[in-house]
Amino acid sequence: MFAYIVRRVLATIPVMAIVALFVFSLLYIAPGDPAAVIAGDQATPDDVERIRASLGLDRPYLVRFGAWVWDIARGDLGVSIFTNLPVSTMIQQRIEPTLSLMIVTLILAITVAVPMGVVAAWRQGTTIDRAVMAFAVLGFSVPVFVVGYMLAYIFALELDWLPVQGYTPFSRGFWPWLQNLILPAIALGSVYIALIARITRATMLEVLQQDYIRTAKAKGLGQRAILFVHALKNAAVPIITIIGIGLAGLIGGAVVTESVFAIPGLGRLTVDAILRRDYPVIQGVVLLFSFVYVLVNLAIDLAYTLFDPRIRY
Amino acid sequence: MDRRSFLKAGAVAVSGGYAAPALSQGANARTLRFVPQANLANFDPIWGTQYVVRNASAMVWDTLYGVNDKLEPLPQMVEGETVSSDGLTWTFKLRAGLRFHDGTPVLAKDVVASIARWAPRDPMGQMVRAIQKELVAVDDTTFRWVLGSPYPKLKYALGKTNTPICFIMPERIATKFDSFTQIDEYVGSGPMRFIRNEWVPGASAVFQKFDQYVPRQGAPSWLSGGKVMGVDRVEWVVMPDPATAAAALQNGEVDWWENPITDLVPLMRRNRNIRLDIADPLGNIGSFRMNHLHAPFNSKKIRQAVLAAMSQEDYMRALVGTDDALWKPLPGFFTPGTPAYTEAGGDILKGPRNMDLAKRLLQEGGYNNEPVICIVAQDQPITKAQGDITADLLKRMGMNVDFVATDWGTTGQRRAMKNPPANGGWSMFHTWHAGADCVNPAAYNAVRGTGQNAWFGWPESKGVEDGVAEWFSAADAAAEKVAMDKINTSAIDDVVYAPTGFFLGYTAWRANVSGIQKGPLPFFWGVNKA
């Protein structure tokens, strides 16, 4: 197992290298000029050219790529063209809100969706099942921002239970931290609740038809034990897979949610950087995301072994 | 669903469509929470000339002069000046008590270094540099500026609101970084300190009152007068989504929203805790620029054809909707309501639109169905709305439109290309100008007609350039007026660009906030919070 983990971690290096090359090349050929954005509307072409030179953007592709790779190899993600701050500092400033949002969303999605899916499978064809499926269709169909607006209207403006926007760091207390995340997490989580609930239901339906479930029932085991100990454990592998895929998808979904709820996270940092062509920031964030994505996949692969003893690495 | 309906629906969903009570009572009355027009992505007002940077910088760095709401430059950091009888030697004396945020006194050498860093990036600064013979610190509080020829607008150049403003920073910073390199130390001279370690670009910026700042006596008016802070702390909260900003203002989570979009104004009007007013009486001028270097717009008649056909009302309604208080037709290039405003030569933009004339001019201009590469940034509501109107207009005129939907970053790069449209160049792009920049030709690059050296589109207009020269040397208001008429007439005749109209915007704040001035930027001095 340990050797497998080491192999997988080492395998991230070529993956990251390919991502780095791809992102750098894509940005190099993409239209847009940060120097023009910096110079502003009143700038002359000469001003823009001087700024471009001062930023080193007039250097050839290979020189720029080589310098960037050399910096990355030394653990330096570079400095933002616009803010003059190290990219690592900017990521550090933004990672907590995004991480918090993803954790709360994931906890919410799993704790709500898995029981929903299990109950829907158990009560297949009943009103409960139909209600869960209707919720799932709704969750898939209604865009995150619409859910966000509705939640903000009801729970912030109407009921005054929660704030409309913003983020409070965890260091200022658990409740202040959580109250800024509840609405965004529900909005962001609605799609994942629907997805996980549907997959759980489908997988459980298949498992519940198996002989060993019939045997368990014949032995007189309680319904709860059958569902959550025997059936759910055997249905876990596809559910974990979908949770993993969902986690990666959360990164994309966070962009919209962070904008609607004005959360200063990595999603907004990325969008802002793309619109301004802040190359070092885009490159740094994409590298980080791809690294997280690889780690999530590794974690999922390892989690399989917890639920299915036949899987060994 | 179009942008306006979408935003309105979003805002109604968030805000409920009716007045919400003030709910958040925990806010500190000494802290003003402000939603700026954009993200404060950098903090060097000379290196980065975006308006949002200027607006934040005006709190942190002071100026030698400051214009008031009558556009008069009044002494700010200077006590006064003397000018030699030939108008060539200006001697300035700094007022007592000026200090930087690190506690050191502001000296004449700091001023000289700051001017030297500012001038290369500013159109007026460049003009002064071109005639400058000497700029030296005479002693700690006096500096002298010797020119080769008179420059009567010198005080205006040092006190204008147009970006870049001539802010005063310590010599060691101003000399360490040239104007094309970003500073990394924010030691200001104004009434508020920038709290660097609380700055999260894209999310928030914090400014703290500088206790050692000595304001001038008298009431504040724009950049002039007593910059007395009524709050101890100003927090900028960046909100990319207008509906969220509207909801946050209604909920009392923020105190002042710089530029609410017009779609949300009716909604906020219904809230008794919110006040709304025109933000800046100088407003904005919408525009699209045609490329004078290449066909089809290298033909003056074809450019005039577009002016004859275009309806400014169509553009303005696309921008501000049905609120007639927010726009005016603009048969010219200068800001309505200012002393220099003129409509001379603007007949082609007045009255009913004449499509027959436009088609005739198109024919006389030799239009040969060349594609019109119309660049429209979709991520800027102002450019997008204008672009849609223009594309429709040109098609109705019978032109071959190649509509290039792109983003602002790409527009910024592509508009600088002088290649023919077929080789990566362009035929027209859309933008807008702050009315404060268009009150006179002093810092108004967009109206200049210097050909290859002109602003994007590279119009050449001898009449405009003669008029600008006359304005700079004008001895009195009457002479300035004559020069302005000449500029306007020539600019329309040569179609240096197409003005799409004059439009205003609102600003919104909580009822417990007072002292907000109307002006080209948000002025934080004099603002109080109950």
From TrEMBL, chain A:
The keyword Hydrolase does not apply. Pfam families: BPD_transp_1 (PF00528), BPD_transp_1_N (PF19300). Signal peptide: none annotated. Keywords: Cell membrane, Membrane, Transmembrane, Transmembrane helix, Transport. It is a multi-pass membrane protein. It is found in: Cell membrane. It comes from the Bacteria. Residues 95-304 form the ABC transmembrane type-1 domain. The keyword Cytoplasm does not apply. This is ABC transporter permease.
TrEMBL record, chain B:
It is found in: Periplasm. It comes from the Bacteria. InterPro entries: SBP_5, SBP_5_dom, TAT_signal. Keywords: Signal. Residues 73-434 form the Solute-binding protein family domain. Pfam families: SBP_bac_5 (PF00496). Belongs to the bacterial solute-binding protein 5 family. This is ABC transporter substrate-binding protein. It comes from Falsiroseomonas oleicola.
